[in-house]
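**User:**
Everyone, produce one record:

**Assistant:**
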Amino acid sequence: MAKSGSEKNTKNKAKHTKLMNRKKNKAREEKEARKAKLKELVEKMKQKK
């Protein structure tokens, strides 16, 4: 028989998913920013030569 009342764990799961997505997005953005900076530096060094 199904439980009556509020569902057990859905709020925590939703919150956790939200936080984990935020963490993953932050890491991805930092990685892309680092990559862009390196690319820019490489281009700058090629210009100097």
